[in-house]
Amino acid sequence: MYFLGVLFVALGISVSIALHEYGHLFWAKKFGVKATQYMIGFGPTIWSRTRGETEYGLKAIPLGGYTRMIGMFPPKPGADPSMLRGSSTGRFSQLMDQARQDSMEQVRPGDEDRVFYKLSTPKKLVVMLGGPTMNLIIAAVLLGGIFMLNGIPEITSRVSSVSQCVQTVPANAKAAAACSPSDPQAPANVAGIRPGDRIVSMAGQPVNSWADLRALVRPNGGRRVPIVVERDGRRLSLAATPILNSLPRVDAQGGYVLGPDGKAIVDRVGYMGFSGTAEMVKQPLAAVPALIGQQVAATAGVVLRIPQKMAGVAKAAFGGGARDPNLMSVVGVGRVAGEVADGQLSGVIGTGSSSKFVVLISLIASLNLALFVFNLIPLMPLDGGHAAGALWEGLKRQVARLRGRPNPGYVDVAKALPVTYVVSIVLFGMVALLMYADVVNPIKLGG
Known about the structure:
two-stranded antiparallel sheet; 45% helix; four-stranded antiparallel beta sheet; alpha+beta; single chain
């Protein structure tokens, strides 16, 4: 089962990469750009077949892929693309010239207008963002299915526990194990509310969620209000007087509202002394876009903080420090997938096969979200770098047009190659470090 879990996620990653590259290939062909290769993986080719003008194949290292389009870089400004160009003497200039030459070497007679660099700015953006968009679509489909068919954990209005009393303790201190005679009884306990009851209404207002209940309890401190609960299929009418207590202010999502000093703002509000039950609640289709947006925002927050988190990864890899559970390589994801399938995380996710399947699907969805966000970073060789070059080209043309100046021509993105090589080296180092950390100090979700 461990092997099957790893294999399932590995196949999911491979399919995700293949669809990412197909997102580039489809639009390139749609706009007439000649695509000579569509490859999944890197290194030696283990299988390939040519159909039409494109070679499709698999390579030995399935950790990426590429779609090769002719004319990715324009000729050197002022040069005749049909003529041989002399080499420059500078190291970076030689790299740029070589990249331009490699980009044009597969341009055959009749292909002059089928090169990538001659596309309009909108078409360039569609081609380059076609890959990340496929990852977003994959994640949206997988997460949407999870949200609607399996649900998401929510605190509901079903009571899980009822406090016996209300204890006043200093911040960051623990409450006493037992109530003292001076502690007032909890309002929920006085009202006769029991664990397992579902709060149907309070103060004459219907209750559909824990957020509804919290919004009704807090402003009614010191007021006696009617409460309707459902118990064993019957509805009972009760009454309670929420006691005034000092509680942190919360926002619409249930998170603490922080003051200028970074500490939670505390209010004197009503308090009942019960807690809700965490249940899996299936979501309607209308709620899915907002939930996916939240996932994208959370993923972006993790991706943008990767550079500052790498110090912690290095410390964990070489010094045994704690790992950030939100940051792992494909090696770590494979390990987690194997542990999920093998039942080693049953205490975290449950024992059912459906729970395991949901977690494995969510791992693939999370990887696709990471690929979507990561590839939008406006640095070459990432897709976002090429998209940024296209936007800069379009901006220059618009500015020239508004000023009545001639077309400035194509942006020579080959000039960004020095940055590209630096970014590539940094990315390779980060991936290698994450993989090493996932081997020597893996993330343990079960404890």
